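Bug report

Summary: structure tokens for NAD(P)-dependent dehydrogenase (Short-subunit alcohol dehydrogenase family) differ between web form and batch submission.
Environment: batch mode, default settings.
Steps: 1) Submit the sequence below via batch. 2) Compare with the web form result.

Sequence submitted:
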Amino acid sequence: MAAREEIHTHLGSCDILINCAGGNHPKGTTTQDYPWPDDLDGVAEEVTTFFDLDL
């Protein structure tokens, strides 16, 4: 509870939470830790981003 209060005090309420743990299955990982604008625009086809992962 203390962690929740600390976060709420500094950042406000949480509207959405995305759990992207993955990592233990080849289809649950991305090719980079952080996407670049070209990755999101589909320019770099060999890059797998969060948005390319199967549900």
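Above is the batch result. After comparison, the two runs are identical; trailing whitespace caused the diff. The radius of gyration is 15 Å. Helices lie at 2-11, 37-40.
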